[in-house]
Task: structure prediction
Amino acid sequence: MINADKKRTQILEAAKRRFAHFGLAKTTMAEIAQDLSFSKALLYYYFPDKNALYAAVLEHVINQSFEEMDAVVPTIADCREAMMFVLDKRIEFVTRYYNLLEYSISAVQQVPDAMACVLEDSKDKERGLLAKILQKGIDTGQLEVDDVDEAAEILLFALVGMRFSILKDIQGMLFPTKDEFDRILVLQKKMAAVFLRGLEKASA
Result:
């Protein structure tokens, strides 16, 4: 007998594959149920509708991404390399789940409470990861930072601001294209390099 947590995870994984390949609009709850040989009623037992399932899948893939980065960042000695690794992984994440993420702006309106929790948790995780990288720079003598948490928050705001600066409002197209995300990565790397350079420990 499969326990409830395992069933929920199976549903999230199946929905993730569907959403990532076809996008949300072209995926139905019936198709996800069919992929799993589950009844539609079982899916609705765990998730009241497709939007709620989408929010849960988004949270699921974001958590997986941060787990991957958290496992690697401690193994990178140089804080600049760690920062560039994280930025590269962010764009890799966007590329892998572009069809899934493209709906995120609309989902905020459809399931505001669920999406607010997902986005807030993601922001906290990202801020924590940036703080770890800054702390690595302090521990290795590369950086001098008075308040790590504050510096991580400032850096996060700058990174997020660069993402949103690319958002469009032309014919309802609000989500950046893949090419625009590539441009965001270039700009973010340049900005992060400048930010870290400003925190470099002065030579004795």
Remarks:
- The two ends are 65 Å apart (CA to CA).
- The chain has one domain: 51-198.
- Residues 51-198 form a domain with the Tetracycline Repressor; domain 2 fold (CATH 1.10.357.10).
